[in-house]
Design brief:
The protein is mainly alpha-helical and 265 residues long. The protein is built from twelve helices and no strands. The radius of gyration is 22 Å and the shape is globular. The two termini are 33 Å apart.
Length: 265
């Protein structure tokens, strides 16, 4: 395949992804009547927030939105608290089985979510955290933790260890050298890991649908009412769920591209 063919193939796949996003965005900022109009116009002529206002005014949406924010915040807190020290240890300390440990971390993502969700639903019923934000957050943490460990390991591997050793020669302990030297330098990467974790929790729907009944997250609530909802409701919901994912792609892409190379050094 020549250069022209490669560019044509790349353009095709780019349009394959971008065109649905474009039409969802246009529909979300159209009036409900314009959503049903055919043929569709490539350029909008009558922008309106009426569809989004209808979406947020629908019963249960704001409660589900609040639940999603709480679950994502808890997931973020737990995943970073557990994953950051693990990533630091993976980057700084050579130990037997470190390669196998990385493989185990990645392999946890190979398990279908249904294998986690159904046993967890039974366990949550027994311990009394079913249909709660904490229960969903723990499940989302299991999904996000491998990414947090690998991303933070990549970030710390890119920070010179000599800087911490120099701080320790000046009186810092290992912990204070980490807090004063490594952590400030790692903050941009940790922010990327945090945003990625937030998006994983924000978009997850299957586990949230199984583990919640009355207190659903926003994706689970949309899935529950999908068959009864009008078309413009679906476009508005799709747009609202899509925007954070687009933001995270722009923010963390450079860390994802360099992650594997740095960790494997």
């Amino acid at each position: 395949m020549g250069r022209v063919g490669l560019y044509a193939l790349a353009t095709f796949f780019a349009l394959w992804i971008l065109l649905p996003m474009y039409f969802i965005t246009i529909a979300a900022f159209s009036t409900p009547d314009d959503v049903f109009a055919y043929p569709k116009k490539l350029l909008p002529t009558n922008l309106s927030t009426e569809t989004l206002e209808f979406f947020f005014g629908s019963s249960g949406i704001l409660d589900a939105l609040r639940m999603s924010v709480v679950v994502a915040a808890l997931t973020l807190l737990i995943a970073l608290t557990v994953g950051t020290p693990a990533g630091y240890a993976l980057a700084r300390f050579a130990f037997r089985g470190s390669g196998s440990f990385r493989l185990v971390v990645v392999s946890t993502r190979a398990f279908p979510i249904i294998i986690l969700s159904i046993p967890l639903a039974v366990t949550y019923l027994r311990v009394g955290i079913d249909d709660t934000a904490l229960g969903v957050a723990l499940t989302h943490t299991a999904l996000a933790l491998p990414f947090v460990v690998l991303v933070t390991a990549s970030v710390f591997a890119g920070i010179s260890e000599e800087l911490e050793e120099a701080a320790m020669t000046l009186g810092c302990t290992r912990v204070s050298a980490f807090r004063r030297v490594a952590l400030p330098l790692a903050l941009p990467g940790l922010a990327a890991a945090a945003i990625f974790t937030f998006i994983i929790s924000w978009n997850e729907v299957f586990a949230a649908s199984i583990l919640t009944l009355q207190n659903r997250t926003l994706p689970a609530e949309m899935l529950a009412v999908l068959n009864q909802s009008p078309l413009h409701f679906r476009f508005a919901g799709g747009f609202f769920l899509m925007v954070p994912s687009l933001i995270v792609i722009l923010v963390i892409r450079k860390y994802l591209f360099t992650m594997w190379g740095r960790v494997s050094r």
